[in-house]
Structure formats: C-alpha cells, structure tokens
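Target protein
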Amino acid sequence: MKMNVSIKSLFALAGWAVVSVSVTGCGKLESGAHAEPTVRLRSAEAVVAAIPGASGDKVEVPNTGDKGGPGSFLGRVTLKGNKPNQTVIFEKGKSNKDGSVCAADGAILSEELVVGDDGGVANVFVFLDKAPAGFKAEKADSNLTFDQKGCVFTTHAMICQVGQKIKVLSDDDIAHNTHTFPGRNDPFNSTIKPKDRDGLDLVYKKAEKNPFPVKCDLHSWMIAYHLPLDHPFGAVSGKDGKFEIRDLPAGTHEFRVWHERAEGGKGGFLERKLKVTIKGGEQPPMEIAVDAAKFGL
C-alpha cells in the first residue's frame, strides 16, 4: 500500500522528513531536538506530514509493515532567532589560576548555550519522567567516563542510569575537584589527582526529576550537568542539535525538554509535556524549534 503526501518542497525523504514542533511555553507546541546517532531502524509505516501551503506536488511513501514493535524517537532542537556568540571566559595564558594548564590549547568558551551554524542547539536534555507502564529497565551494561582537560569538563551534559558506574578522570597535570549537587542522591565531592587516568567511581542510586549541576570548586567556571534515570529513555542533543532515543514501546509518550538557560537562566523546562507517538521502526524526525526568548536572548 502507498500513501500520497503533499509537500511544498521535497526535502530529503531518504534522510530527514521534518515534523516541526517549536516550543512557546510549558505544555504548548507552536510549530514542529545530542547526538549524532547511527540510526537503528526497523520496518514501519513511514509518516510524513503535509506542510501548510504545499503546492500540490505528490510524493509516494511506502507502507512498510508492523506498527506495534518498539521504535526510535529521532529529533533535533533548533533555535528560532539569531545565533548568539559563545562568551569567552578567558583566553590562553590569561587565566588568573593555573594559567599554564587552563586554556592551554586556546580560549575557554562558556558552554551555557551552544548553537551551531545551522541553528542546532547542543546540550538539551530530552527524557521521560517515568518509564512506560509495565516496562522493566535492565541494568546498564557499560561504564561512562566523566573527564576534564584544559580546565573544562569534556562532557558538559550527561544522562546515565541508576546504578551505572561513572569513572571520574582528569587529563590535566593539576588537581581538580568534582562536586555534584543532586536533589535526591548523596552529593559526590572529591579531589581528582593530576593526570588520574584510573579515576574515581561515581554511582547514582536514585533517579532525579531534573538535571543538576556538577562543579569544580577549584576552578569556578567549570560546570556540567548530570541526570540519572531509572530507565534508558533519555538523550542529550549533540552539536548539531540532534538526538535519538531508541527502543521505545509503541504508543504516545510525554517527554520533558530541559536546558540550563531556560527559565531565566536558572535551568528549567523548554517543554514539560512534549507528546510523541511512537510506532514500530522508522519514524520521521521531529524538529523542536525553540524561540530565542526561552533562552533569555
């Protein structure tokens, strides 16, 4: 069986057919999101939305099978508005603390809001608040690393599962301090020795409702964000704004979309209840276009 779909302009059906969903406020969608994933696809009915004002051109999209199996949520977060420049924290050699190491490879830039040339927004958390009904999460089978180099955390935004081991490392030849500020878990506050490539173990025992900051008390500009979940259904957008959440049960799910610049720069939700319907296998990616005002611009 085939479906005829009207679109105004043909845009890469073999790659990205975009469903626009921009965020204007909590619980409202205006138009229609970490990762640069290698997409694992299963058979499914390809769904393409007609763009308003389409010219009447027809594109045939095949219906490819079962809708009931698990599927992937692919998306991209983009900025609606002018791209801001990253703030320079300090330039090479001008740090007033550990200047021979900090910014040794160039200027240190703020990662508070990172927007690519094509408008993709990095470091946006997209996740389910709770696992779908009846879903039982398996124990994470791999460790994560949380490293630092040049007085910068190399992973600015991280999602992990409860019980998953995170190895806290340092590639700098000066001491650092890793200090977490969770809501439900016990804080982790430990000095990381210079060039420690064995690392310390960090394990979160409880799921958190929101991402929380991780700081270095010795270098005040060093900040990252962690979010432990009791299920695997979360992702962080990459430099191009893309993310992927795999193996979701079929059905409609409500995702939370969080960024550190939201809600007056205090960190908060760009969207609390982003409804996404998952059908088995391949899905058209969703664009989450966020007004610049939501980032305080």
Residues 27 and 50 are 23 Å apart (CA to CA). Residues 1-83+121-134+243-297 form one domain. DSSP finds one helix and 22 strands in the chain.
